[in-house]
């Protein structure tokens, strides 16, 4: 049973708004984490130049680096910034050109489902045992949480990227028809 077109449009609009809000929140969090990382590393360098040690800066920088890596990776999947092999979809017949996009998304989802599953297990262990960081005295789960969050966001980003790839493929199929031998120019000469 298909949704009524106006209902489908409203559901699609609401989903698009939620998607935009989610990724704006991720971008804001990434901005804050990168700013914190910059501050921590700068403070560490300045303290060494001035002759006193600030041991908390190294540990904080490590935690923030993990957050930066996993949030940035997830954002890269959403915006399709990671390396992709597009040559295969260019040489496939029009009906099969979406296959590499589906394969790439499926592999990404599988990989990050496995990473996320194991990260959740590690996160639960760290919370259960009450592991604390040696210098900052915060729970070590703070260093594992971005792996869980980043894995979930990488899956969501990969699916969002797949939707855009498929939309691009559909648009390209409708805009540029397949060239035929009669429509392929031969340098400066024209067939008569």
From TrEMBL:
Give compartment(s).
Answer: Cell inner membrane
The entry's keywords: Cell inner membrane, Cell membrane, Membrane, Transmembrane, Transmembrane helix, Transport
Q: How does it sit in the membrane?
A: Multi-pass membrane protein
Supply the InterPro entries for this chain: DctQ, TRAP_DctQ
Domain annotation Tripartite ATP-independent periplasmic transporters DctQ component: ranges: 39-166
Query: Chief subcellular site?
Result: membrane
TM region positions: 21-40, 60-77, 98-120, 140-162
User: Subunit composition?
Assistant: The complex comprises the extracytoplasmic solute receptor protein and the two transmembrane proteins.
This chain's function reads:
Part of the tripartite ATP-independent periplasmic (TRAP) transport system.
PANTHER family in the cross-refs: 2,3-DIKETO-L-GULONATE TRAP TRANSPORTER SMALL PERMEASE PROTEIN YIAM
> Belongs to which family?
Belongs to the TRAP transporter small permease family.
Protein name (record): TRAP transporter small permease protein
């Amino acid at each position: 049973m298909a949704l009524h077109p106006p209902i489908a449009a409203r559901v699609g609009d609401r989903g698009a708004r939620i998607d935009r809000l989610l990724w704006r929140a991720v971008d804001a969090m990434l901005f804050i984490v990168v700013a914190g990382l910059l501050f921590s590393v700068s403070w560490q360098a300045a303290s060494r130049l001035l002759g006193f040690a600030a041991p908390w800066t190294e540990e904080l920088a490590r935690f923030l680096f993990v957050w930066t890596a996993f949030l940035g990776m997830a954002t890269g999947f959403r915006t399709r910034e990671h390396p992709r092999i597009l040559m295969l979809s260019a040489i496939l017949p029009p009906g099969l050109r979406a296959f590499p996009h589906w394969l790439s998304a499926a592999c990404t989802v599988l990989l990050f489902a496995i990473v996320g599953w194991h990260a959740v297990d590690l996160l639960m262990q760290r919370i259960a045992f009450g592991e604390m960081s040696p210098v900052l005295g915060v729970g070590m789960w703070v260093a594992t949480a971005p792996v869980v969050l980043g894995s979930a966001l990488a899956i969501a980003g990969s699916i969002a990227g797949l939707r855009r790839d498929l939309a691009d493929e559909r648009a390209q199929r409708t805009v540029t028809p397949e060239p035929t031998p009669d429509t392929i120019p031969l340098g400066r000469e024209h067939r008569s």
